[in-house]
Each structure stands twice: as structure tokens, then as C-alpha cells.
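ligand=iron/sulfur cluster
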Amino acid sequence: MQCNVCEVRCEIDKHSMGRCGTYVSTGNTVIQYPDMGYLGALPVSIEAVPLLHFYPSGKFLQVFSTGCNFQCPGCMARMPASSRPSVQQASLRPSEIVEKALQQECLGVVSAINDPVANYYLFRDLAVQAQEKSLLVGCSTNCYFTSETLEEFGQLVNFVNVGIKGYSDRSYRNCGVNSSAPVFRNISRLFDMGIHVETSVVYSKGNEDDVIKVAEAVSEISSNIPLHVMRFLPFGYAPIELEPSVGDAEKICSDLRRYLDFVYLFNSPGTELLNTYCPECGSLLIEREFHRPFGSRLVKPWVSHTCSCGGSIPVQGKAATEGFNETGFMDSYSISQDFSMVHAVLTCLGVLDDYKLMDVWGEDKLMNVWSKVSDSKTLTQIHNMIRQPYSYLEFIRFIAEIANMPEKGEELVSFIHKRLKIVQNLSAGKSSYNVYYCMGSPLFSLNAGRMENNLVTFSGGVSINKQLQKEGKLGVNVSPSFINEHNPGVIFVSGFLSRPLDEFYALCQKYRIHAEAVTQHRVYEIPPSWDFGSPRWILGLLYIADKLHPGKLGVDLRKEADDFYLQFYGMRFKEARPNRSFHRPSSGIWPHTQTLYNDLKIEMQKQGSTKNFGNEIIQPFNILPAFNIKLKG
Ligand code: SF4
């Protein structure tokens, strides 16, 4: 049987579930995998999806499930996207989602994180039931639907954010499908059907021309369609060299505004290009700030969509006068971060990971652990444990016990504990520095209670971030005067999203930040994932202590890094090609296949189960080939 939901058009038989692994054949039709439901349902503001011109600050119930028809390098939602429904431990039916949305006074439901293409029949049931209760319905999608499915899909949704992979077919082949043409065809059709459409495109180094062509193509449909430029964040296999600086991303956004009236820049804390400016006169109309990767939030409610010059912004739906902001811990982003942090500990315990290896044993172990930690009480417990150096040791023990690997857990605890003692002894003398911790821009301050600021305090520094009363998802925008008044002697730039130091100093000059750290050149970039998210924060702590107590730490940081990487990742630090993943120390192939393949039997994937896939994929990131891998014996 052929599945006609998307243009991959998989052949599905009793041995195959199609590319997304979520459909089965009954013999005369293709249906959704039985018992499939949604894995999570949490309220978000619409800007978190993101959509910026639709019911601003409106509260929507965001749902996600498993599976995806694309296999994009560096995908941040890799875990839900590549999981199979058979390992779902808990799932919500459409009727339960609708009930929750009504109970929580949401304006509607939105499917995000994994693609609704992979759950189309489930999504259709949800949309029909939601519409019956007058809820709005939408999703973020790669929009690779067939024309026939799109006609029906267009009747089900009020709004979509289409994630465009690029203009060229090559950019789509990178994700394992043939062509970009169906996506632009579908955007045009949805727009004509009166659906509210916003678009997103990833900008990575080297794809500038492609991104410009995307803007041109979207402008041919309508120059009013917002384009969200996602600065590429290299997770998984993707190398860090592909991450453009925030400055480069701002420049390309300015170029794109020649084609489109509304171009927004994401994944770039502190940028002014998340704001809406009047396309007629250029006046600032509304400000937004970075809320988390791929998300934003309004600084204040956006009530009037008309400029004083008379120009108006095409915004659909009434703005919420009291905007909803998902704060606290129980939201989808925090939960996915939490999952990544659990995963990061498991990696250090030896639960290794690869797309294909997950199918063999890694995923089962991961999902087994995940199912035991994903209730709200445990998540809150984890959230508290990962914020302080010593309580993090309890987090390791907790995960190691669930994974049934207590000895491995103690090895990791022992390594970290020994270094904590060294820093604790050193910091007893206190550092004289006020310290400021920011991310991506001098104007984006990390939240007071975060691990990074607690590492500063643990090292004897005085964290000025702790003076801030307000909080965002990761942090908040601050004014230059806040930094100047507290005059930090040292500034650390987070290792999660970075800005090169030359750009950082240029921004300090632009914003007239003249703190001692800037004038004395004591601004330091923390190496990727050395300060939060991964047990590698212990190396970040040594790094911070060394900068706050120059010449007094008494350990060779490079040797410490080598020891850690060898003991817990089986590689030397100098061999690692960093990226932004918490759970893996290196981009490219890791762990080294030579060692792993000794224990594995590799078979070519059966033809037919993944039509149009496997023979034309460009593999710039050393992605493992499309093999089935099984443990020998
Ligand atoms: S990728 Fe998924 S939705 Fe697309 S045709 Fe294959 S099974 Fe159907």
C-alpha cells in the first residue's frame, strides 16, 4: 500500500511502517499506528511556537507526539522525531487534549516539536474535535504534504508555521527528501485558502544565497508573510563551524528585508531584530525578547497594530491584553531541556547514542529512564537538583539508579566531587570580582538562580545577575546602565549560544558599556556545554575558578579536560569537535565507529520501506549511512 500523506509516498506493508514509523497497512488501507496518542500537552504563548502575527501573546495548548518524515542534521527535536510509537509510555487522546485546552482556557491547540505529517490522522481527529468546541487549530510543519492531503489539511487549520529547509532541492535532500517544490506549492495554496501562514528558515554558514532565494520565493506569494530566520544551532552531528555569529545573522536579516516586510531573527539573545518595525516609516512598534531557542516573547501586550504614520501590520486575531508567558518549569521547552540533561548523564554512564544505535538498544534505555522521570513531581525534583553543584551529584545518583548503573554513577560523582573540593578550598579566600554572566549579547542576562551563576558564587565571585528581580526562560534583557552600575570585573559569555568576542566588544562599545571587565579585557567565552546541561559543567567550574583566581587554581585545565573526556567519552578533549549538544562531546561520528562496529552486525536497509531515501542524501556531517545495525548474536 502507498501512503499518500506526504510526498515521500512510502510503500507500507506488514513489514514496514513508512519513513516516519507511525503508519501501518491493514491490507487495503494505510492507517495511523493503533493506540498512538500525544506524548505531551502544555500551554504556551503563541510566540513560543513561534507565530508573531497571530493572536499575539495568546495562550495555546501545544501538543507533540513521535515520528517525522524528514531526517535533518542537527535536529533539536531529534528524540521525539525519531522515536517509534511502540515505546510510548503514556499518550493522550484528542478528546483529552480538547478537554485540557478548554479547562486551561486556551484559545486553541497547536501541534509542534514533531511534524503533524507523522501523526496526520491523529491530528485530523484532534482538529475536528477542537473545531467543534470553537478552538483555533494550527501547527508547525515542514509542509511536505501531497496536494490531495493538503486540500483536507487546509480545512482543518487556522494557522501554520512552515519550516522551510532552503530553496534548493539540495537543502531538502539533506533532510532525506527530493525537492523543495512541494513546500512552496503548499505555502501558496494555504495562503490562497485564507490560512494564516508564517514561515521559518534556518540560516547556517554557507547557505546565505539559499536563504535569500527563500525570501524571494515567499515574497512572490506575499511580502506580508512573516519570515523567521533561525540562526543555526549545531546539535548532534552538526559541527560548530556551521553556526553563524549573531552579527552575521543580523546582517542577512537586513538583506532579507528587501524582499519581505517582516523578517525576525531567532536564537540570538539580545538582538533588536525580534521587534516589529513599521514597514512604511521604520518606527519601532513592539519589542520582543529571546525566550528560549526557537522562541520569543513580547515585552508588553501588543494591542494596536497601527503605526502613527498610518501604516498597519497584518495581524490576525485580537491581542491578549494580558499576555500569557509560560514561566516556571512545567513547559515543553523546559521538559525537553530536562530530557537532554538526563540524556547527558546517561551518555557519561556509557549509554551511547547514534540515530541507528538507538534502534538497537540506546533508545529503549533512554525511553525507559525517561518514562520513570517524566511525571511532574520528578521533573520538579530534577529541576531543583540541576541548579547547584552538590545537588547535581544527587541527580547523577538518581539517574544512575534508574538506569541500573550505580557503579558508573559513582565514578562520575567521584570525579566531580574531587574537583568541587579543590574549587571550594580556593574560593574560601573569595574573589574580589563582581561577575556578570550573559548569553549571546551583553544585554541578555542569565537568570539569577541558574547553575551558571551558582558556579560563579561557588568559585567565590559576586554574581551581579542575582540582583535581578525578573526572570525569563533562560534570562532577560537588561539595560547598559544595569551593567555599568554594577561594574563587573569579569564577564562570562555562556557556552550554550555564543557570540565571538570581537563582536561582543564591539557591542559593548555600541551600548556604551564601560565596566572594568570590558576596559580590562576580562570577557571570557565558556567552551560549549561546559557550564550547563552536561556533567562537563565541572570543567566549566574549573575554567571559571581559574579566571576569578588567576594563577591559583593549581590544576592543568587541559589535562583535566583530557581526563574527563577519556574517562567518560572514550576520546581525548583535543579530538572532540564541539557542538551545542549536552549529551555528546563531539560533532561528526561519535562514539568512534571502529570500537562500536566490533560488536555490531550491519545490514543494508530493505528497499521499498523508505522510498526515495538513502541513495541521494548528501551527508555533510558524517551522518551514518542508512544501515540497519544489530548487536551480534
Ligand atoms: S514519510 Fe510518513 S507520512 Fe510521508 S508517505 Fe511515508 S509514512 Fe506517509
